[in-house]
Specification:
elongated, 4 helices
Length: 75
């Protein structure tokens, strides 16, 4: 069973690694939209942590930081 699960994870990742960089980045952007907007993975935790860490920042600035940290490229 463990071998089957490993294969299910291993081969799709290998196929993704063969993609050219522009297509891989496009795929990453699509995954970001799904995770950030549709799933909302840990969104409230991130918002609360940012509000506690930067109480002087406005809501728009906190949202900007939140989005940039989710993409992995903070500005």
């Amino acid at each position: 069973m463990k071998k089957v699960l490993t294969s299910l994870a291993k081969y799709p990742l290998f196929l993704i690694s063969l993609l050219p960089f522009p297509i891989a980045y496009l795929l990453a952007d699509v995954i970001y939209v799904i995770i950030y907007y549709a799933v909302g993975y840990r969104r409230s935790v991130v918002q609360n942590n940012l509000k506690n860490s930067f109480p002087e920042k406005s809501a728009a600035e906190i949202t900007s930081i939140e989005k940039s940290s989710t993409t992995g490229f903070p500005t």
